[in-house]
Amino acid sequence: xxxxxxxxxxxxxxxxxxxxKPVVRSVDIAEELGFKKSSVSVAMKNLREKEHxxxxxxxxxxxxxxxxxxxxxxxxxxxxxxxWLIKLGVDPEVAVEDACRIEHVISPESFEAIKTHISLE
Length: 121
Known about the structure:
Elements: H1 5-20, H2 26-33, H3 37-49, E1 53-55, E2 61-63, H4 65-87, H5 92-105, H6 108-117
Antiparallel strand pairs: 1-2
Helix pairs in contact: 1-2, 1-3, 1-4, 2-3, 4-5
């Protein structure tokens, strides 16, 4: 399940927006990320070609099983790492930014080891 950071960010954003909105459209993603709609269009085309999303004729974007798997993984990492860094005393804004970078490069093995040995309660 190889992916790149940009694709992972888009998939995570689709996941987050799908929890907030009844349907997700390119314009919603552009607004959420502060990107031009044309940039989002290119990214959606790439995600469609990789079969990570489907787009209805109305322009509604849905994650496929592979897209959902990647989005869930990145979202879990983001939530866990942000909470962990905040618990360590890192400023919440910095923690979220750092977690966003770490979530894309940490190996599954290292992430699982951290989760096993860290209690967030």
